[in-house]
Design a protein that fits this description.
mainly alpha
């Protein structure tokens, strides 16, 4: 049991918590923007909440594995997109967004964008873990989740950008700091 790895895990959990708080802090800015578009460069700030949720969830799972001083199984990686969706919806409810407004069974577009972007970023975790661990069912499931996230996003290109920045950046950071969790 490595004390250094456990301390790193606690630090990753702290960074994950701070990452989850960022959408709350930039919420008023994002509320003024509906969806990111290339026509309005100022609207690209709407990518930030999805990226922070995805990155925070990846760091949370990675930090949890480091605190336990355990390997991160590929199948546990499938929980990351589910956690991303739960955190994104929880943040929307906490921010007072009326999830029942609009068409029954659908979320408002800005919330749907954040949920989809976070799910895309979180889906990178099972894809990476499935590929590096040789777990083909997890790799396929992660790929399907990634494609579903892109399919339901109101702005799929920007949802992919948010997921890549948040989830991909967090996986890269976690791999750099704690290779034992992510390396094959």
């Amino acid at each position: 049991m490595s004390l250094r790895r456990r301390a790193l895990g606690v630090a990753l959990l702290g960074v994950a918590t701070l990452s989850w708080l960022q959408p709350v802090l930039v919420g008023p800015t994002v509320d003024a923007v509906r969806l990111p578009t290339l026509a309005d460069p100022g609207s690209l700030v709407a990518v930030a909440p999805a990226a922070f949720v995805a990155g925070g969830t990846v760091l949370f799972v990675s930090g949890g594995a480091a605190v336990r001083d355990a390997d991160l199984p590929a199948r546990v990686g499938l929980l990351v997109p589910v956690g991303c969706v739960a955190v994104a919806v929880g943040l929307a409810v906490g921010a007072g967004v009326d999830l029942t407004a609009g068409t029954p069974g659908t979320l408002p577009d800005p919330v749907r964008f954040v949920v989809a972007g976070a799910a895309v970023g979180g889906s990178l975790a099972p894809v990476i873990l499935g590929a590096t661990r040789g777990d083909t069912p997890v790799l396929i499931a992660g790929s399907v989740l990634l494609l579903v996230g892109l399919g339901v996003a109101p702005a799929p290109g920007f949802a992919f950008l948010a997921g890549l920045l948040g989830g991909g950046g967090a996986i890269g950071l976690a791999w750099m700091l704690d290779a034992a969790t992510w390396a094959p």
